[in-house]
Design goal:
By secondary structure, the chain is of the alpha+beta class. It has eleven helices and ten strands. α4 crosses α7 and α9 packs antiparallel against α11.
Length: 405
């Protein structure tokens, strides 16, 4: 018991508090969380055990041992070494996962750049430019993605010239070729001393970083602006170029050459990859453009007027004042958009691109069974990639939110 004296020196005795298990907030909170976790765990165990028993009754194999089994089929597009009859189904999974990550990564980069560009054009004072950007957004955003994929594959890339009439996109150097079998391009062959050129480029980038840092420090201290664009370009171009020439130009190119009915050498991307890349990039760029437009409109007009009043050019106002303040409103929709890009890449199965769905959840499943395990692995793959994207962008979103305050 605790005695508390008031101003009148009277002594009051507080009643002794009795512990009640069901009324204590902390105990009750922990108890219900454990109860919920236990219930969910029991349900998962019940579903797993019930599924295993049903599969056993039907004589169906279970487990993940099939990943070590030899796969007997090949794929026409792969970025890792694989030989049919030697490689395993784990290799097939890796090929499909890498192909999915490749198309998703490139599509995310292109759609983000194009989306920002179109979103800014949507706010242009030029009537024609604004209307063209509006038409781009409305057409591609309101057309189903699957239809766009099929259109680009059947209506564009499949109708390109045949191999003998290949289009040379490199102005006669034959380093970038396009036909109805895909895009062929030269690949570099690095010499023994090429690492010095790479080191020179890295050194130049470090130098540019310190130039930029010094310019910012000088501006914060004195308000004077230092032009570092030309020195930076000179450093990035001249230092690696000088190193490249004095080391004997240790770089050659494996150029694709026509032999028989197809090109040999270099590397190539199939029409299915190109069609899927264009479709994903354009479709999601239209979505990002609207997020960018809405984010820019959320910035107070007074910010633009103040920036113009101190002498900043319109381009600098957009890049240095408006867009940084709009990022807290732009990033959340972009998080969802990037995750949708990864998941929508699974539509590649409609045109035969060898992604994880086509190779692993379709061909592998048809050959070896193990439907539950294969579907679960595929779902876990997409979920993991989505959570990684969400986590990284949420970290950036918190950073820009703090910067804004």
């Amino acid at each position: 018991m605790v005695k508390v004296a008031n101003q009148d020196n009277n002594v009051r005795i507080r009643p002794k508090e009795e512990f009640n298990f069901f009324q204590d907030k902390r105990v009750r909170s922990v108890f219900y969380q454990l109860l919920t976790a236990g219930t969910v765990g029991w349900l998962l165990w019940y579903l797993a055990s019930n599924t295993t028993q049903n599969l056993a009754l039907r004589g169906m194999n279970t487990g993940f041992g099939f990943l070590d089994s030899v796969a007997g089929f090949d794929t026409d597009f792969k970025l890792i070494e694989y030989t049919p009859g030697v490689g395993t189904y784990l290799d097939i999974f890796m090929i499909g996962a890498i192909n999915t990550l490749l198309i998703s990564f490139v599509a995310i980069i292109l759609s983000t750049i194009l989306g920002f560009f179109v979103g800014i054009l949507r706010l242009s004072k030029n009537w024609l430019v604004a209307k063209v950007a509006l038409a781009f957004v409305e057409v591609f955003r309101n057309t189903p993605l699957l239809i766009q994929i099929v259109f680009w594959f059947i209506g564009i890339f499949s109708l390109l010239p045949v191999v003998k009439k290949t289009i040379d996109l490199s102005f006669g150097s034959e380093m970038l070729l396009l036909n109805n079998r895909g895009l062929y391009f030269s690949t570099p062959i690095f010499g023994d001393l090429f690492w010095l050129t790479a080191l020179a480029l890295l050194t130049a980038l470090v130098g540019v970083f310190f130039l930029r840092r010094r310019a910012r420090k000088l501006q914060n201290e004195s308000g004077a602006q230092t032009k570092i664009l030309l020195p930076s370009l000179a450093l990035i171009i001249l230092l690696p170029s000088f190193t490249f020439f004095i080391t004997g130009m240790p770089l050659a190119w494996d150029i694709p050459t026509l032999q028989g009915f197809n090109f040999v050498g270099g590397a190539s991307l199939p029409p299915s990859f190109l069609a899927l890349l264009v479709s994903l990039s354009i479709y999601h760029a239209a979505q990002i453009a609207e997020a960018v437009r809405a984010g820019i409109l959320s910035v107070n007009r007074g910010q633009t007027e103040a920036a113009l009043a101190i002498g900043l050019k319109p381009g600098k106002v957009t890049s240095l004042v408006v867009v940084p303040q709009a990022m807290p409103a732009i990033v959340p929709p972009i998080i969802s958009n990037w995750m949708d890009t990864v998941k929508n890449s699974s539509l590649a199965v409609a045109i035969g691109y060898n992604d994880i769905v086509s190779l692993f959840m379709q061909t592998t499943l048809n050959q070896i069974g193990h439907a539950v395990e294969i579907v679960a692995i595929t779902m876990a793959f997409y979920m993991t990639i989505s959570l990684i994207i969400s986590g990284l962008l949420n970290i950036y979103n918190k950073r820009v939110q703090l910067v804004e305050r």
